[in-house]
Fold each of these.
Amino acid sequence: MRSLPEVSSRRGNSRGTSRWIADAVRLLALLSAVVGAFSLGFPQTFGLAIMALGLLFSRMFRLPAPVDAVFCTTIFVATWSGMLGLYRTVPSWDLVVHFATIGAVSAALYLVVAGWNVTREPGSGTPARAVVILTFSLGMTVAVLWEFGEWIAHRYFTDVIIVGYDDSMGDMAVGGVGAALAGFVLAYRGGAAGETAGHGPSGEPAAEQVAP
């Protein structure tokens, strides 16, 4: 049986690494936007700027470090996949990105609304099914808005973005699966994922208790 200091140290190291990853991705996103302003066209630069601003979301709401890291990484990959044309050149890459990104964003949003007391955080007596349903609903909302945003970008800015009925339905379907999976992770790992927004300057609670 591990001692309390040992367990706390390992968890602290894990959170520290996750936070470092998230901040590194945010820095890369900022540098991308700055470089893009001097070397890319308006649509690409605008997309990179939106990404850089969006990655501040998880930091601003003090989400748990692991959620922060996954949130930032998936959005960074999703944005640069479009910049590099991977959605067109790599089969099914679009579906993989939608699955991962919608899952990460839906988990982050659940923790934010829990921090606002709209619902209770995972692991605090909330029925698992309620966590899954709300996370799934948030994810599907984001998936629809994503497709709407792609249509606007395609219609008014660039035809590089792929749009179409089959593409949109597939993206939303896998996004829903990712959101549902994120809900299950939140529900059944509530003790770890339930460190909700607003618990401290780095998203960690002030103290932890470890069962013997």
Amino acid sequence: MEANNSRFEITAKVFISLVALSEVLGLFLQYVYSVRRERLTTTDLELALNLWTEKLEGPCRRIVLHGSHLEVNGAANLRLAYLTAKLLLQRIQLEAEKQMNGVNEEQIMNRYSAARMTSEEMLMLIQDFQRDHLGDFWMAVSSFSFPSAVNFLLRCALETENTPEGLVQSHSFKIAHDLITALRSHQEQHKWDLGDICIAQHAEIVEKILAGVAPDEQGGNNSSLDLQEFDASILDHVFPSIWDPLQNAFTW
């Protein structure tokens, strides 16, 4: 009975942490959609997430920062929600940096790198999911985490690479491709539907990019892909902006 009570207490703390994190995300969205933006800065947003993190204790802290204790009900959801918030913050900071006078290119590259690392953390989390994790409680809004991350990664790849081969070999594209692969595997093997939106919106274009650089029957390079057709702006037309809040808020 005592063990059951302890487990129930940890689960309750996980859900309380999720509620508190939703308040932080609310601030992020106020900034993104220009609600009270005149009174909010990117520093305010970063501080809000840091304060939320610092208040975490025990298993909840390890769930969020290390991705451990995922067997606890709601833990996987909490970890994903944190990474989603972290990535959104990093993208907000990146866009704010790009719009400043006297752009610091090295700082921009650091922002890109940090956001890619968070996207990779999200990928590793999804790859580590087992049947029990997939069958746990999930908030429906979590399904938008994946298309937003993949959209960002594809933009990174398209903005930094000049050839089809370079695009496919880029770290950003590989993370995006691996994330779609992992989501599709969970969908097919365990009927997990949280990745359905991402698969529907992004899988086809990723497959087209891969097909454009696939070796031909003679072993040569079938470079039928024209990057002029896949510049970053095309994503605004291919993918509905509802899947990615920053697509509405900023001009890429």
